[in-house]
Q: What sequence folds into this?
């Protein structure tokens, strides 16, 4: 995205760093945009060591597939760290390259090969931050990919540039993470010569697609918040969608009189309104709840609590008698089953059950299984990650029919 105020050759890049923990994967559909340059970083030591290789390959393949799913036409660079350690033994780079080529198997045309003058024809960029090896080459490659992207040279009006500059200038205020559309953005638009609300929304949509800000428009609550510091949103969601065994200080919640609420959230995936008010410090709570609803990260459980499916832990074991009902199988084995699909289906079912007045008394919820009672009957959802399938069973209430 060229900055017309400086030089036609200048290029401004914003850097987004995604959480590596699996519990954050359910948020990928919010942040993996269709434009940009994706840099997939891995530890070469883990790929070279047989004891950690399988896990490292699985982790890498997940990221490659996720990027291809959400951003099929972007440039993607593979970057291996700890280059200095790998140089100690001859042939290490060739081993890593062989593993990566077998893993990708020509299925990811987005991968940009480095200009390997020194190390031969590698599929990845070996770097070492401590020794500063390969860093400049990687920077040049990222810049080259960005400049080659037609999006970066797309012409926009000076008024739109001024609109973006004025909005992002608010970042200088350390306490300013977002602007309200009704009270702030509209005024900025009028000042820079864009009085039309329709054109302002069009410009915001363009800036959102380019990753400069976040502006969602599916409801009036979401539309009124223009996020200029995406980390604010990530931090807020991460206070709820998080690994309870790693991150939680229950003593803090006990002091606030919310220990039971916190344990309910991270142990049973049911969050109270009081808990959400506390972790979000009472700021834009309706916005966060609405956002999580619309992106199917959360659904209403009852009047004062919410279900967050990505926090479910227990694994369901299929009984010998089978699961009752007629079965429909969604088979992703020819590609891959994206993380979060099962959880979002569960959100939809729970929301539908709530609308129909069925309540939450007859629900059975697990990390990989759910049984939800609807007006027409019972729906059972079963995720099989190994087979890459989601099975949907439908049965009449109290039916004993098995598949």
A:
């Amino acid at each position: 995205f060229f900055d017309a105020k400086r030089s036609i050759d200048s290029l401004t890049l914003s850097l987004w760093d995604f959480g590596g923990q699996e519990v954050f994967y359910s948020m990928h559909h919010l942040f993996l945009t269709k434009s940009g340059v994706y840099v997939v970083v891995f530890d070469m030591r883990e790929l070279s060591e047989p004891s950690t290789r399988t896990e490292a390959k699985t982790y890498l393949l997940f990221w490659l597939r996720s990027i291809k799913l959400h951003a099929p036409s972007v440039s993607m660079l593979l970057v291996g760290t700890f280059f200095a350690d790998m140089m100690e033994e001859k042939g290490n780079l060739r081993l890593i390259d062989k593993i990566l080529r077998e893993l990708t198997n020509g299925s990811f045309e987005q991968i940009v090969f480095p200009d390997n003058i020194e190390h031969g024809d590698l599929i990845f960029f070996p770097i070492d931050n401590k020794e500063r090896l390969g860093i400049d080459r990687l920077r040049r490659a990222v810049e080259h990919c960005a400049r080659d992207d037609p999006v970066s040279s797309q012409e926009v009006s000076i008024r739109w540039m001024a609109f973006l500059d004025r909005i992002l200038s608010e970042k200088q205020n350390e306490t300013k993470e977002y602007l309200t559309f009704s009270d702030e953005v509209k005024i900025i638009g009028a000042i820079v010569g864009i009085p039309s609300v329709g054109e302002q929304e069009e410009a915001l949509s363009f800036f959102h697609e380019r990753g400069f800000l976040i502006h969602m428009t599916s409801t009036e609550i979401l539309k009124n918040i223009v996020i200029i510091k995406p980390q604010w949103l990530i931090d807020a969601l991460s206070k709820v969608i998080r690994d309870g065994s790693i991150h939680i200080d229950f003593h803090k919640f006990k002091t606030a009189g919310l220990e039971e609420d916190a344990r309910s959230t991270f142990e049973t995936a049911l969050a109270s309104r009081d808990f959400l008010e506390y972790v979000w410090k009472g700021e834009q709570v309706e916005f966060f709840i609405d956002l999580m609803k619309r992106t199917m990260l959360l659904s209403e459980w009852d009047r004062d609590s919410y279900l967050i499916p990505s926090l479910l832990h227990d694994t369901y074991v299929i009984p010998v008698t089978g699961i009752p009902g007629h079965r429909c199988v969604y088979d992703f084995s020819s590609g891959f089953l994206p993380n979060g699909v099962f959880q979002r289906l569960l959100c939809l079912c729970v929301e539908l059950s709530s609308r129909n007045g069925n309540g939450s008394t007859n629900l059975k919820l697990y990390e990989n299984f759910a049984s939800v009672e609807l007006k027409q009957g019972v729906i059972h959802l079963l995720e099989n990650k190994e087979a890459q399938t989601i099975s949907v069973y439908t049965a009449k209430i109290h039916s004993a029919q098995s598949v």
Notes: The mean pLDDT is 87. DSSP finds 17 helices and 13 strands in the chain. Residues 138 and 225 are 35 Å apart (CA to CA).
